[in-house]
Amino acid sequence: xxxxxxxxxxxETDTGNKISRRSQxxxxxxxxxxxxxxxxAEAVIRGDLYRLPxxxxxTDPNNPPQPSNTPSVAITVGRYTYISKSAxxxxxxxxxxxxxxxxxxKIGDHVFVGESAVVEAASLGNHVHVGAGATVGSMAIIKxxxxxxxxxxxxxxxxxxxxxxxxxxxxxxxxxxGEGYGVEGAEGGMARERYRVVGRPG
Amino acid sequence: xxxxxxxTYISCPCAxxxxxxxxxxxxxxxxxxxSPTPEQPNVDNDNKESKEAENQDGDEEEQTFDPRSPxxxxxxxxxxxxxxxxxCHQIKCPRCITEExxxxxxxxxxxxxxxxxxxxxxxxxxxxxxxxxxxxxxLAVSTIENVTxxxxxxxxxxxxxxxxxxxxxxxxxxxxxxTNIRAQLQKMTDATAAPALDxxxxxxxxxxxxxxxxxxxxxxxxxxxxxxxxxxQSATKEDETPTPDLGTDARFAALKSFYRTQxxxxxxxPGDPLxxxxxxxxxxxLNRLMSLxxxxxxxxxxxxxxxxxxxxxxxxxxxxxxSEGLRIAPEKGDADxxxxxxxxxxxxxxxxxxxxxxxxxxxxxxxxxxxxxxxxLRTKRAKRCKSCxxxxxxxxxKPQSTRFRIRLxxxxxxxxxxxxxxxxxxxxxxxxxxxxxxxxxxxLRPIHVLLTxxxxxxxxxxxxxxxxxxxxxxxxxxxxVLSPQFDIGANSDVxxxxxxxxxxxxxxxxxxxxxxxxxxxxxxxDKGRNWTTVVLEVVPGxxxxxxxxxxxxxxxxxxLAQQDGDVLEIPVFVHMEWDAEAQLEQQNVGKASKxxxxxxxxLAYWMVLGVGRIKTSL
Lengths: 202, 618
Description:
heterodimer; A: UDP N-Acetylglucosamine Acyltransferase, domain 1; nine-stranded mixed β-sheet; globular; B: 618 residues; alpha+beta; six-stranded antiparallel β-sheet; 16 helices; 22 strands; elongated; isopeptide bond (chain B); phosphoprotein (chain B); DCTN4 (chain B); ubl conjugation (chain B)
């Protein structure tokens, strides 16, 4: 790495994560990054919205220090996943038995989250593309190789099957990606290339 | 233009060949066949005259591909959508394949539906998956009761939409169990069996009981009551239970069985194929027609041409009673509908939109008639080559699986093109920004783009690129490929790459781009294990509007931009040659050939590079 990268915008961790100094990451102990993850400026990652243990949920004011003892994971991000500028990752939440609780957000490998997208899904599979300005509602499940078009609003709880393209408000399945989607270097397989050019001058 | 710049599209040659035929080479087609078919879309006027003379062999050499012609829309595909047939040795686009359904699955619950059930379920999910009738969003099963953490969840269940906040309470439906909702709904909405009258009475009562206090339409009960009093058709009730009518599905079934019996009763001969319960759609119907014609003509010949039919064919009657599926149009149905349309509690919001109605039964007019729609199933499909029937893609049947048993995608055969603008060092280009803005390319200022071709085959490939020196279309941009002929290395074992160090191609590629100096003609820009980068020098042309005086500019530019006329797209003809191992051929075809022999192969196709958008002015 040229010396310029050291004082550049990005902090590079041991596992190769490139995290912008201008990103807002809350609750870092509840976030797992798989390595070679890119988090761009002004991205917001809400690791502080983790799930409280069920005992703590019932008796909220009694033992607040307990969650810190056993940090539960709020957000898992896979390898070569790219979180663009001003994107928001927020764990999904649900009213379950009268208690509002958060659930973990799992993001797979080679995922792209577009600029100012809001992701509240329960899971994004591998090679998922979330377009710019898209919204993925609470507890939605986006399977591998699915594409969420720019500006789409995936309603809460929706399941997007693999190889499907969803778009619109509310999102509907509008098509399918080709069989070659996700091949290294082609559409859907640009994650390594994207990772490589981050933090590089020019 | 659906993709951000820069993009690459590959043209499937099937647009030029009317019938994909592996036995015949495209080149060997005779000229009389050719001239009527609009072969190459951009036949310029001057080219047209010369076409007759030169179309003896390979007019694709003479004519350039025009990405702007309306016809190219149908042949240009992003590389990842294309397949490759190993038998035909050709690129296959979605138009030159046939599909076969491997499995059906519900997109919501991702359960596979066995093919025997698909038909009976009407291609829809038979479980709990429903779409919102107002906004098509998948509905969630939720309970109405506000259960505390201690209490177990039970009580009436509803389907609710998290997007538009529609629930089945709006139409007065609750479910007893959270499972098998489709059957429950079917039971509620369909009076399939039994004497219709008492059952519907009962149903209407249960509906009245079930109707939620939240429902904003307080008119359901009154309406049904009044309708029953009139003995009227329920044009406004979603399931028509209040009337002594059958539900839509039941009526269809009744009509179907009625016509079936009619056919069997009226069929002339006992051996008539229509008499069996095959129905009209069976090939028996055709048989019957054919036998009518042939027998009559033969008989006519035998018996001196008497035109009179032997016997009067029995007449089929239509359904007469409700149990046979008859439905009488209500006396004041339209008047009622109109009255309701005008009433205050209905209003605009109460009327179902066209989009909503087209998914529902034809009687539905108002939003409180809308029923939740079971999710339409999706399919996993295998793909075959249309000409040789070889299977090109075969996914695993399981809906959750993303694997393929067979996947012959074009990217494993043809080199993957990627385009990148070249940032020249500041010494050579003085004031331009390091990377040109592809969405606003200044006209008449040369830019360099790097075209990288990455080989995914295990054989080295020789590539020849060709472009028209001036791009077709209204904006003539000059294009030069600085090194049109080059080799790409084989996609050797992954271990080689690993042993060489994974970063080897990485360091070679873009970081040194600025230090590499100026692009030179005849030299490849960069080269890696299985990829080669060449430089294209592009001089964007001027838009027609910008040359004219200022007043003219706006209008011209507007129309041009609308047609994407300002997009700089370069057609590139790629010709690749490689020596394939005959072994591979032997395996696939099963033909005996010399084992350690190399077969020379070639493949040629057009691709289109979308470089950017040209600015109006400098």
